[in-house]
Design brief:
With about 80 residues, this protein is mainly alpha-helical. It has helices at about 15-25, 35-45, 45-55, 55-60, 65-80.
Length: about 80
């Protein structure tokens, strides 16, 4: 599945589709930095919905940097620092 297929510009995506599309864009070394910066807040915005669905209890993010970003953001939201 290519990132062009998953472009975050497409409207009406589910939270999981948005997360996956943004993660692909952020992790693809060919993605321009400006696109990465636009994808990150979209990815972070859907985390509470994915957490409520239990996604992070079922799946482990293999990319260390992405996993740390998600963990840090969820912890910040949990403690009110996000």
């Amino acid at each position: 599945m290519s990132t062009s297929t998953l472009s975050v510009a497409a409207p009406f995506r589910s939270p999981l589709e948005t997360f996956v599309a943004c993660a692909h864009e952020m992790l693809d070394p060919a993605t321009p930095e400006a696109v990465r910066r636009r994808a990150e807040p979209r990815l972070l915005a859907v985390l509470p919905m994915l957490q409520a669905l239990g996604v992070f209890e079922l799946f482990t993010l293999r990319d260390t940097a992405l996993r740390r970003l998600v963990q840090d953001e969820l912890e910040a939201r949990r403690t009110g620092h996000g």
